[in-house]
Amino acid sequence: MTGAVGREFTFTDKHFSRIRQFVTAQTGIVLADAKKDMVYGRLSKRVRKEFGGSFDDFCSAIHEGDLDEQDFLINAITTNLTAFFRENHHFEYLRDRVIPALLRQKQKERKIRIWSAGCSTGEEPYSIAITLQEAIPHIGDWDIKILATDLDANVVAHGSEGVYALERINGLDKQRQRKWFQLGKDDNQGLVRVKPLLREMIRFKRLNLLHEWPMTGTFDVIFCRNVVIYFDKKTQAMLFERYANILTPGGHLFIGHSESLYKVSDRYASLGHTVYKQLPK
After folding, report:
1. 19-32 per-position pLDDT tens digit
2. Which of 22, 26, 42, 155 holds its CA 20 to 30 A away from the CA of 142?
3. What is the pLDDT of residue 229?
4. pLDDT of 3 over the 60 cut
5. What is the DSSP code string of the chain?
6. Residue 176: which of 103, 126, 125 has the closest Cα?
7. Which candidate in 86, 113, 150, 220 is catalytic?
8. Separation of first and last alpha carbons in the chain
9. Is 143 assigned a catalytic role?
10. What is the rounded CA–CA span in Å between residue 208 and residue 227?
């Protein structure tokens, strides 16, 4: 079967199958049949530029180990939809329930570790950092770090830079806008940058969740929201097991509003609103 009418290049079911198999093997993301047009749309410009419009040659490069093309494919396919304080009830729960408990439990060591897994362009970890700054008195007396990881190297670089279009913070109240963001001037007009105090709390790293994790310590809180919806149940179960193993006893896991651990993992207790607490093994 050849490409659909209106496509500039031939993109067959075989091409889609080869791309889909590679993406699933490398990332765990399962591309449904309905994603064929989306995949073509995201790859066609690259295929025109680098391969003269030949998806045969593009697929060959992917399967022969061309790292540049493999990185491009992974970055192109992963979806990055995010916003500051998206699903705000999670940040309210973090502020009202999780942080006070951590301040009591860790009064001696004064060390808190949080992981934003699937951080996209950084709005989530920066929202976490703002919540911590606003909720913890004398925060400078604490050792607090946020790890922000994503599969897509481009969004990790974007997050690390901390520069956003001004309209991205329109949903925040004016006080937060002034306190945590710097307005761009001259050539940077229309842009804002996250202030250094927040950027210093976060370490951005590229990470494939299905590969080995280099972290040696544990985390008190993990945000993994709207990530596992792209994985099959077996991969989800494996991933949530690994999260449970790297959480501190009784640590918290936040997942996306359309996700659930029901019949996927018994390592957590549901606290409602897609917030979970790790259970002892």
Report:
1. 999 988 877 777 88
2. 155
3. 80
4. no
5. --PPTT-SS---HHHHHHHHHHHHHHH-B---GGGHHHHHHHHHHHHHHHHTT-HHHHHHHHHTT-HHHHHHHHHHHS-----TTSSHHHHHHIIIIIHHHHHHHTTTT-EEEEEEET-TTTHHHHHHHHHHHHHSTTGGGSEEEEEEEES-HHHHHHHHHTEEEGGGGTTS-HHHHHHHEEEP-GGGTTEEEE-HHHHTTEEEEE--TTS-----S-EEEEEE-SSGGGB-HHHHHHHHHHHHHHEEEEEEEEE-TT---TTT-SSEEEEETTEEEE---
6. 126
7. 150
8. 50
9. no
10. 12
With a cut of 60, say whether residue 48 has pLDDT above it: yes
Task: State the Cα–Cα distance between residues 256 and 230, nearest whole angstrom.
Answer: 12
Active site residue 42: yes
Please tell me the total number of residues recorded for the chain in this structure.
281
Res 219 pLDDT > 60 = yes
The segment with the largest mean pLDDT, out of 14-28, 76-90, 126-140, is: 126-140
Q: Which pair of structure tokens corresponds to residue 200? A: 């210093």
Task: Note the pLDDT of residue 16.
Answer: 96
pLDDT at residue 5 in the model: 53
